């Protein structure tokens, strides 16, 4: 096959995928796999497209292709595994099968270790504490910021706030503002508010106006000053405009502070940002129930399902919202 033609096809597939034109991209990807059957790049692309198809038979075929890639030694083994993990429907036996494949493939990177850790926890949720310790111990002896953030993020996603604190401390914390957010989130989760306040006093510039305002608002609410809390949170919401991560933090802080109008407004802003519709629709349903904002969430999800059928979860969430509204 002509390498230039293959590259053109690959760029075409990427463009169609970004535009949400999944069904159009599938036959192009399938014909490209026939032209270059040894190129795992196109196998992975086709598998991903099929997994996002509207047709159940295509999704089943896509998942099977992802399994083949995840179980074989190739440059797309890791991405295929990540795709399967994101699906969230791995059984215990499937998780253990993938563990064996990854161990056979080898590798000593932190990303590799976190994939193994996630699979172990999927197979046996009761092993979380032991698995977390095995992941954390090697990285704790290092001073690599990227690895530290990766492990801290995984621990945070599992609700292990105490372990997060042991990562986001010491000399790395003093020199890397990126570690402040996970440390403050962990301190807040453990209700160690005086320590949160100390960090806000000493590192406010490093945090920026959105994050510092969100945490200050939460602290004021804890102290019983609802008016001051709302002032800080509204300022944080304004500063976070267009920043999905910051808006999510503002929303969570406002909800915990019981300043629900700010939480709702932050979620409304998130609805319009790429990749945020699903979780924000769910959050608005929890915050407000059947209300005008839920109608807006339903409309956004209808557009997502119609134009960008990336995951069956979007359709499930849309059905959930329709049920709430009695449609």
**Rounded average pLDDT:** 82
The portion of residues assigned to helices is over 70%
The radius of gyration is 22 Å
Distance between the termini: 52 Å
> Helices and strands: which structural class?
mainly alpha
Overall 3D form: globular
Number of strands: 0
Uncertain segments of ≥5 residues (pLDDT<50)? none
Task: Give the ordered list of helices and strands.
Answer: HHHHHHHHHHHHHHHHHHHHH
Note the total helix count. Answer: 21
What is the makeup of the main sheet? Answer: none
Portion of residues in beta strands equals: under 5%
Written description of the protein model:
This protein is mainly alpha-helical and 327 residues long. Helices cover 78% and strands 0% of the residues. Helix 1 (3-18) packs antiparallel against helix 2 (22-35) and helix 9 (145-157) packs antiparallel against helix 10. It starts with a helix and ends with a helix. The mean pLDDT is 82.
């Amino acid at each position: 096959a002509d390498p230039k033609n293959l590259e053109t096809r690959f760029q075409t597939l990427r463009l169609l995928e970004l535009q949400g034109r999944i069904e159009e991209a599938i036959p192009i990807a399938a014909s490209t796999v026939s032209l270059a059957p040894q190129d795992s790049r196109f196998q992975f692309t086709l598998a991903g497209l099929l997994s996002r198809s509207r047709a159940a038979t295509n999704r089943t075929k896509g998942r099977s292709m992802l399994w083949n890639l995840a179980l074989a030694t190739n440059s797309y083994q890791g991405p295929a595994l990540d795709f399967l993990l994101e699906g969230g429907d791995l059984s215990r036996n499937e998780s253990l099968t993938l563990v064996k494949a990854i161990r056979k493939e080898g590798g000593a990177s932190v990303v590799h270790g976190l994939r193994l850790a996630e699979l172990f926890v999927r197979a046996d949720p009761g092993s979380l504490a032991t698995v977390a310790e095995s992941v954390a111990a090697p990285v704790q002896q290092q001073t690599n910021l990227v690895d530290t953030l990766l492990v801290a993020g995984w621990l945070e996603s599992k609700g292990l706030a105490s372990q997060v604190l042991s990562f986001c401390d010491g000399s790395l914390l003093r020199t890397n503002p990126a570690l402040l957010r996970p440390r403050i989130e962990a301190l807040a989760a453990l209700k160690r508010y005086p320590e949160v306040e100390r960090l806000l006093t000493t590192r406010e510039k490093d945090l920026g106006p959105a994050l510092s305002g969100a945490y200050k608002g939460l602290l004021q609410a804890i102290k019983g000053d609802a008016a001051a809390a709302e002032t800080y949170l509204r300022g944080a919401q304004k500063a976070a405009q267009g920043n999905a991560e910051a808006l999510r933090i503002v929303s969570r802080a406002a909800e915990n502070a019981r300043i629900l109008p700010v939480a709702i407004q932050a979620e409304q802003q998130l609805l319009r940002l790429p990749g945020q519709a699903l979780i924000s629709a769910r959050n608005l349903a929890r915050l407000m129930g059947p209300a005008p904002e839920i109608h807006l969430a339903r409309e956004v999800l209808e557009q997502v399902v119609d134009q960008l059928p990336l995951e069956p979860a979007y359709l499930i969430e849309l059905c959930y919202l329709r049920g709430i509204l009695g449609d």
